[in-house]
Amino acid sequence: EQLAGTTTKTAALTASVWAASTQIATAAGPDWGLFEGKSASLLHPVMMFSLLALSVSTAILGFQWRRQRTMGDEISSLKKSLPSLGGAGSISEALAEARAANDSNQVSVLTAALTTEQDIAALTNERKELAAAGPKDKHFSQGALLAFLGTAFAIEGPLNTYARAGKLFPGPHLYAGAGLVCLWALAYACVPAMQKGNETARTVHIGANVTGIAFFVWQVTSGIPILQKVWEKTQWP
Fold this sequence. Notes:
Blueprint lengths: L1 H27 L9 H43 L10 H10 L3 H30 L1 H31 L6 H18 L1 H5 L3 H35 L4
Helix pairs in contact: 2-4, 2-5, 2-8, 3-4, 5-6, 6-8
């Protein structure tokens, strides 16, 4: 009986101490250390500005790759519109032959085609320059990096806010960030179908990314007042 009584008292004492320590910890909140400081808090906005720039750069590369990919059809269409050269190697050569033969009709046709030939040459050179720059691989690599870092810091931001304030603050900044991550996921989900030549997937991919940039601008601008508060209320480091 004495042993049972002692055990009961010990258990009661332990429960009391645990309850008191829990109340103190709950009142004070967990100590997140460096994660609550100004350095960690500023990491999120710095990354968001950087990722917005990366997003625009990735979009430009995507349009360059699309331009390179579709130029072949444009060049082929222009070539089909050229008149018969009669065995000459170029329009200039055919024009010289027509003039020598005093064929005024052919001279007129070939003279008009000179502009088309110049357009074909310009498009061919542009296509070669784009191919040398490699926008396709750069677009894919930057897109993958953007999806990873963007998602990671979209999660880091609310975690940092919770560490500092003990709660989240629903509003335009949070909603824009959540919508942006969903649009990234949608754009990335279209890639397998795009690789098989699905034009609908390409249209959705482009639309999701263009809308995503608009969301990103909204997210960044709505975060500036939050950045000002963080700067005022947090301490280094």
